Amino acid sequence: MGRRWRDGTGVLVVHGEGDDARVRVPLEIAGSYRARTKGLLGRDSVEGALLLSPANNVHTFRMRMPIDVAYLDRRLTVIAVRTMRPGRLGAPRLRSRHVLEAGAGAMAGWGVRVGAWVEVVAE
Predict the structure, then answer these.
(1) CA 108 – CA 61 distance, rounded (Å)
(2) Cα–Cα distance, 123 to 113 (Å, whole number)
(3) Short-list 79, 83, 87, 31, CA closest to 55
(4) CA-based angle 113:67:59, to the nearest 5?
(5) What's the Cα-to-Cα distance from 8 to each of 30, 86, 99, rounded to whole Å?
(6) What is the DSSP letter of 33?
(7) Strands, DSSP E only, in the chain?
(8) Nearest alpha carbon to residue 68 among 93, 52, 87, 49
(9) If you average pLDDT over residues 14-42, what whole number do you get?
(10) Do 18 and 40 form a contact (C-beta atoms < 8 A)?
């Protein structure tokens, strides 16, 4: 079940309750060490979300904005969601294999919460 993505773009599909409850979000994919290290550093905003893979923790040092962070297990099920202000260190999540980042408040609007399942469609 190990997933590997290359740096690039795609779509994040958030599966909600019911068959029609799906949200599609523009996605940047950071699959290389270099791209994961850079993440959202130096940005004032993000369009959609950023997937860091593999990853099990993040920090917001040198960030300019607060972000939402969702930790995903190997099946892409959300195991934790946090909002982090700049200058913080997130606790590692042992079962986390991937991390989603987005502007603060965005994930609640998309339905990203503990137990939700997401799908990554790489372009």
Answers:
(1) 23
(2) 25
(3) 31
(4) 105
(5) 7, 25, 16
(6) H
(7) 8-15, 22-30, 49-52, 67-72, 78-84, 98-103, 117-122
(8) 49
(9) 87
(10) no
